[in-house]
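In practice, a research group might receive sequence data for several interacting partners and want a quick structural hypothesis before committing to experiments. The following worked case mirrors that situation: the sequences arrive first, and a predicted assembly follows.
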Amino acid sequence: MTVDLTRTSGRTGGDPGRSGRAGGAGDAGKKRRRLLGAQPLGILFSAPYVIFIGVVFAYPIVFAVWMSFHDYFFTAPGAQVDRPFVGLDNYVTALSDPAVWRSFGNVGIFLLINVPLTVVLSIVLATALDRVVRARAFFRVAFYVPYVTASVAVVAVWLFLFSNSGLINNALGPLAPNPSWLVNSALAMPTIALFVTWKGLGFYILLYLAALQNVQRELYESVAVDGGGRLRQFFSVTVPGVRPATFLVVLLATITGANLFTEPYLLTNGGGPNGASTSPVLLIYQKGIEQQNPDVAAAIGVVLIIFVLIIAALQRRFVGREES
Amino acid sequence: MKSKVVTYGVLTLGALAFLFPFYYMVVGSLQTNPDTSIAGAFPHPSNLTLENYTAIDGRINLLKGLVNSGIFTGGVILGTIVFGVLAGYALAVLKWRGRSATFALVLLVQVIPFRRDTTDLAPSVRAERPAEALQRQRVTRSTTASTGWYRRFARAQR
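A structural hypothesis for the assembly, expressed as C-alpha cells:
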C-alpha cells in the first residue's frame, strides 16, 4: 500500500493539487476531482467496509423496521406469500402485552443498579490504579481478566457460587435469602446486574485510566497547597477532570445494558423466575425465534432502539453538557 | 503513607473479588466431589484429582470445539484487518468524496445498539432447545469449546 501511495504522489510530481493519473488531462481531471475528490483511491479502499456494513448492519435494520409494519411470518425457503401492510398492529400487540412492559421494567432496574455501580467502582479503582507503582501490571490484569473471558465460561462459576447450597449462601448462613438469589424474583435482576458489572468493569477502568492521563498534575498540587487532602483532590480535580470519560462510560454501560441477553439467558435459564429477569432482547428472541412471531419481535426491537436513543439523548444533556 | 495503605487495600480487595471466581473455577475443576461449603474453597488433598481433565474429551468433542473457535477467531481477525486497515487508511490519510459521510457511518455503527455477544452464543442458544433433535445435530457441528462445555454443564444442572 505504501508503495502504491508513493507512486501516486510521485506521478503527481510538483503539483500536489492534481490527482495522480489525470495529471495531463486538464479539464477532464478537474471534473473527476470535483466528483470523486483529490484521491479517489480512498473510495476504493473504504468500499469493502461500507459494503460489509451495508450487508450486516444497514440491511437488517431497514428490514426489521419494514417487518414491524407488515404481517410477517417464516415460510419455507422460496415460497411466495402475501405479507400485507398492517400499520401499527404489531406495535399495538407488543405494547398491550404485560410481559413486554415487565421486560422494560426489568432492564430499568438493571440499569439503575449497573450504571451507577459501574461508574463509581471504575472511577475509584482507576484512580487507585493510577497511583500505585508496585504490582501495577498484576492489578491491571486482575481487573481485565473477567472482561476478556467469555460470559459462557464464567457464568457456571457464578451459578455455583450463588446456587441454593452454594458458597455465598454457606458463608451467609442464616442471612442467606430464601428463595436463593437467582430463583428469587426480587433478587434475580440485581444479581445479574452485579455479574455484568463485575464482568465489564475492566473495560471501563481502562477508559478512566486513559482519561486520568489527561488530568493536569498541577491541579492536584494546587489543591494540596490549599490544604486539601486526597478526598478533596478526588472530588475537586479527578471527578471533574474525567467528565468526558464519565459520559462515555455512562453511555456505553447503558447501551450494553439495554441489550442485555446473554446473562439472563444463562444465569436464570431464560428470564426466570416467572419472567422476573426477562430483558427486552431476550423477549425478542423468544417471541421472534421460539414463538415464530418475527413481526411483533421486530416491533419490540424498534421500540427498544427508540428508548435507548431517548435515554442516550437525555444522558448527553445531563452528564455530557459541560464538554459540549 | 496512610493513603498508600488505603490505595493498596482498595486495589487488593478489588483484585480478590475479581480473581476469586477464577480461582474457584480452578479449585472446583480439581475436586473429586463438588464441595460447596466454605472449606471447599480451600483444596483438601484427599479430594483432589486430575480425572476431570482427562474426562474432558470423552464428554465433549474438545478438538472440534477448539478448531471451531479457531476458525471463528481467524475469520474475525481477517475481517477486522482487511476492512479496518483499508478503511482506516483511507479515512485517516486520503482525501476523497464521501470521506466525512463514511466517518459518520463508522460512528453511527458504534452508537446504535446491536448485539455482539449473541453471535458467540448463537450455537449454544440453538442447542439449548431439546425438542429439535435434528437441529441439535446440525448445531454440534458449530459448537465452540466454551459453548460446548456450558451445554454439558447446563444439562447436568437440571
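Before designing any experiment, note the following. Chain A has a mean pLDDT of 84. Residues 98-131 of chain A form the longest helix (34 residues).
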